[in-house]
Amino acid sequence: MRIPKYWIRSTFDGLDQHGNPAEFVAWGWSSNSPEEARERGTKRAKSIFLRLSEGSLPYRGGQVTEDYDYLAAPPREEIIQSFTYTDLETPETLVTRNRYGALVLNSSSVLFVDIDLSPTPRPLGLVDSLKYSFSRKFREQRQLAHQLKAVNRIVDWSKSNPNSGFRLYQTRGGYRLLFTDKLYHPLSDEVRRIFQELQSDPLYRRLTERQECFRARLTPKPWRIGLSRPNTQYPRDSENQRNFASWLSKYESNSKSYATCTYLEHLGPKSINHDQIATTLQLHDSQTKAAQKLSLA
Hints:
The protein contains seven helices and twelve strands. The protein is an alpha+beta fold. The relative contact order is 0.14. About 0% of the residues have low confidence.
């Protein structure tokens, strides 16, 4: 999994595009030590300076934004819990807090498939558009048909792959599958095939490959429970940490009445022969409140 333990904000002094002295900033990361993270950050800051000098790096509003492939980094997330199931020191499961404050389960081998139904089907023609605009019942029927089509595709896939066992959940924006039959490798051709055949969310596919793990959000998105995102991202200084602690208290309070997904049924073989899968399933279902039939967020 590409989820580092250490993050250091590093700088490099140079001249900007106008020849003025400037400080170039980049985050460095490491799973081994703060020193290695600092060294990586300094190298990245220097790379920004050099590519700016060459004119090969976009520069906006007096700074370089880090949303380009060249600067792609692992998720800068706080590690909340870690679980190891073998004699190896590297954990196979991590619970992290993402950039907007939600808890996320990260697994090296337990396969999650995310199927996003957004956006809802577009109206077909003028008459359909009018019905869509003025009839709530019509919109609900269209959405239900959209959901049934996705569920039928999942059920048909299960029938065509009888050795694959998985638990099916409904999320606010679609469906989630948690595979229980065996362990999977995130970068394998088998996983790519499963993603393709089940029409998994393209963004989720890219994140799986980039981060070399499977991810599942455990707690609500804050804007769905009446909160904005946190103002700062991990790691935080002492003042920002106090502000974040206040935000987190409200977030946890508002989250109590919501679930992240609802368990629907188990398709395929139901036996679970790996401790890693069993522990991941228990953690997932308890944290998401999958059995409580609450409003989804």
